[in-house]
Amino acid sequence: MRAGNAFRRTFLTGLDERDEPDSAGEADYDGPWAVLPCRRQGKDGFGVFRQHERPPGDRPEAWFHRREQALLAVAMLPALARDPHYRVSTEGEAEGFLVRQAGDPVGYFTTFNEPLAHAMHVGECLLRSPAALASLLLALGTNAFRLVGRILVERLPEELPRTAGEGPSASPAGEKP
């Protein structure tokens, strides 16, 4: 069953005739998103739905065979419509290719590397969205999740408080490191 809408069809049709504001794309991809089991062409998998949508009445934004792929899509979707946080100059200088964040110079690439600037944009979006970062972490396998926990303990500054028995070389009793 397709979800209803609080607005009348004539009102919604009238909205279709208006120009979208610049923020519409960001609002469309920002979420919140849900990963739900669903079937597509007779195969079981996982759909990426807006939080208010449900299968089978609503069509997913994306569909995957595996849950971790759907979670990865959920983590990346908010970054798609945002203005790039990082831009790299196409003009090389003596220091390299200038990298800007919000118009301010922040560094240089030795070679022109637009894919790296885009990857940094996605990373910045993950840093600004705890929900997207959580989706990315949920896509990890069990072993990778454990390793991330160990790496975080190793890299946290020593002055952060830890409970008894915690530390870079310690693991909880009975657990494999």
Question: What is the topological layout?
Answer:
Elements: H1 9-16, H2 24-30, E1 33-40, E2 43-50, E3 62-64, H3 67-80, E4 86-92, E5 97-101, E6 104-109, H4 114-128, H5 130-138, H6 142-155
Antiparallel strand pairs: 1-2, 2-3, 4-5, 5-6
Architecture overview:
With 177 residues, the chain is an alpha+beta fold. The strands form two sheets. The protein has a three-stranded antiparallel beta sheet with strand order 1-2-3. The chain has one domain. A hairpin with a 2-residue loop joins strand 5 and strand 6. About 4% of the residues have low confidence. Helix 3 runs antiparallel to helix 5. It contains six helices and six strands. The longest helix has 15 residues.
Provide a concise account of the structure shown.
With about 180 residues, the protein is α+β, with helices and mostly antiparallel strands. It has six helices and six strands, in the order ααβββαβββααα. The protein has one domain.
Could you name the ranges where pLDDT drops below 50 across 5 or more consecutive residues? 168-174
Distance from first to last alpha carbon: 47 Å
Roughly what fraction of the amino acids lie in strands?
15-25%
Structural class: alpha+beta
Work out the helicity level.
25-40%
User: How are the strands of the biggest sheet laid out side by side?
Assistant: 1-2-3
Number of helices: 6
Gross morphology: extended
* Largest sheet entry: 3 strands, antiparallel
Extended strand count: 6
Q: What does the radius of gyration come to?
A: 22 Å
Which sequence of SSEs, written as H and E, runs from N to C?
A: HHEEEHEEEHHH
